[in-house]
């Protein structure tokens, strides 16, 4: 029988949201429970009680960030009436390029990288799961005739590589105009 995850208490949910806002502003790399707890109106002891450990809290924060990422992808998905890969990538890029989303995207980049260099512990599987999430969302945007073939998998993998590479470049330089022009150029090639 599968184990059920207990429903979080209202206080746990409240503290997770506050900790998530803190992580968006400060990142997770040097997360220390004492400053975090002070900033969100709690104590390290309460955080440890509610999340089990610092790793448990980091896992909860990563799950929360991934929920935002999946919500973004949900806006591009239309499996019943696929919009096509290029229009979906255009929608996703417009969202990614918006300045107000940079804190979430920096947190995503940090978690993605940590998952690659520290494959065990709280970060385990984050990078792989996000790749799978994005590829599934992009597949839902492709018409079945394209989605179900090897060429469709290659096209959505290329689209994902363009989005990820452009996102990292944008986060590094804040040169939205140049990076968006490069994405548009690549999408023109993908369209043909």
Automatic annotation (TrEMBL):
Database matches in InterPro entries: Homeodomain-like_sf, HTH_TetR
Residue intervals annotated as DNA-binding region are 32-51
Determine if Transmembrane helix is one of this entry's keywords.
Answer: no
| Keywords of this entry | DNA-binding
Occurrences of domain HTH tetR-type (ranges): 9-69
Entries under Pfam families matching the protein: TetR_N (PF00440)
Top-rank taxon: Bacteria
Does this UniProt record's set of keywords contain DNA-binding?
A: yes
Q: By what name is this protein known?
A: TetR family transcriptional regulator
**The species this protein was found in:** Streptomyces hydrogenans
